[in-house]
């Protein structure tokens, strides 16, 4: 920081650095950092010294061991290396509130370093001077301990009433606008406009709903950042920046999204209370489903592609749904893409799947595609399809896909039992199981399914159009309509890719035959 004082010159008196940190006077009045620096500089000159370099750690605790004060560290490096004749502080509490740090200054004083304060000089080369300095350090540390106890008590008291403890404003929550670099505690602040808060709440609600519908966090982040660059209100982070996958997922998992405030009470237990003065962005059940969805995800795995026959085709041996999986250990397809397969994968949550059945994805998709077009190409079937209601079929296909997705999340979550413990997994699993139960009840209540775009005479055109648009729901609906009981027999030998393994009329029909 530049000061209107001459640079130190040899023989012009001791050159002392200044260190300032936010302070309150005895009467409780706030003493700003800039005021401390000005008072200290004037005192150095009045005592015949020279002003060296200035260091300040604004709003950084000198007591909390987790807080790093970069300017203080730089100052101590200068003191211990002999680059300065000493240090001037408004009072000892501004320098440190930790006894161990005060001892570093005492050690430096033995090499001639001088320690001045606004009230005088600490003569650390004498026993009485060191005793007085240490006594001030002890008082400062005790004062910080008492302040910490009062602050913790006050925070718990506020938390029990559902009031936030302060700090940075959370996304979609009311609060203060960010401050500039020149702002200091005690300066006026401006509240976030109500229309911005409402816009952020709408964006948060949209993101949660789309994630629960199956969209990936990465695609949402990409879209949000495009909207941020376009200047759309409510899309930027609280600091005005862009999103990352980590910041978006953490933001949406905050309890405040459900109108909840969580805190650790004096007994060490985590408790939840309604957040005072703030309406939930989404219902608590919906927020818990989102948290369970994130908890079940394996960190670092890529977004799962949508497989045509996942949940549509079952294993002939055990009746469990066949699901799509990547095969990283096998050679890729000729076009270079990763090889994938449908497998009756053993589910650790239920232990129902046999895990002994599988087939290459592209082979299975092509065989089923040809069979569907051949069967539904019959005018008799096409006419029946055209008579059905499109909405029912589309809803059924989506329900099946959503159930399959939540089943996968439950399976992934159950694998964390050893590391998380049963109690934590059970808490995260409860909303997932409740969601699956509700979806299955809704699925059972539907009328006979329909094929939305496939309810036309030209089945080939319907299938081609759905493939072009990536409309997997319509493709699955077509497969279900053509082969509602599709099953896959276990391979007769290793690498068995015979089309005879496809049981078009289901397990029961194959067993009867």
Structure in words:
- The chain is an alpha/beta fold and about 525 residues long.
- About 45% of the residues lie in helices and about 10% in strands.
- It contains 17 helices and 15 strands.
- The protein has helices spanning about 35-45, 70-80, 90-95, 100-110, 125-160, 195-210, 215-230, 245-250, 285-295, 360-375, 380-385, 390-415, 415-420, 420-445, 460-470, 470-480, 505-510, and strands at about 15-20, 25, 30, 50-55, 85-90, 115, 120, 260-265, 270-275, 315, 325, 340-345, 360, 485-490, 500-505.
- A five-stranded mixed β-sheet has the order 4-1-5-6-7, with helices on both faces. The chain has a three-stranded mixed β-sheet with strand order 10-14-15.
- Strand 8 and strand 9 form a beta hairpin.
- Helix 9 (about 285-295) crosses helix 14 (about 420-445).
- The longest helix is centred in the first third of the chain and has 34 residues, at about 125-160.
- It is elongated and about 105 Å long.
- The N and C termini lie far apart (about 90 Å).
Helix tally? 17
Instruction: Going across the biggest sheet, name each strand in turn.
Output: 4-1-5-6-7
SS-based structural class? alpha/beta
State the end-to-end CA separation: 91 Å
Question: Keywords, please?
Answer:
17 helices; 11% strand; 45% helix; 513 residues
